[in-house]
Amino acid sequence: MFLFPIGLVLGFAIYSWYWQATITMYSKYRMSSVIWALILMMFAFSSQMLEVSDPMINVFIASFLLMSIVDGFGGLAPKHVVVSGRFIRAVKYADLAKITLIPVPSLKKPSVMAVFTTLKNQSFYMKFNKKLEEIIPILNTQTENAVQIEVQNIQQ
Fold it and tell me: How far apart are CA 70 and CA 85, in angstroms?
């Protein structure tokens, strides 16, 4: 009974791992992927959708957690923005309408929020622990200067 879900979850983890391997500049890891997986598993066990006595439950849980851990990574790849999350893994730079960069004041590390808006008016955001001056040249190179890059500042 668990072989199909295990295969599906492992297949998705490998698919996500492939996109992760193409990243040249990583964004900050999104812990929400793991947190939501744990909440979902707690719900499944408390509602008795999953039971500890089920065969292969350990393999399923390990596969599901692996998929959730891998899904938290995102960043910039040579031809795509690799998005952290389960539904859309990669967005081609050609499908982007604009990129908005927002330097975030921080005492510890430099930090920049990037909002990627597609031609279909979908938005994805990432946070980078880099200086704005480091990110802009990388984005210009990756997008081949074909995407509008806008820099905004946080009003204090």
Answer: 9
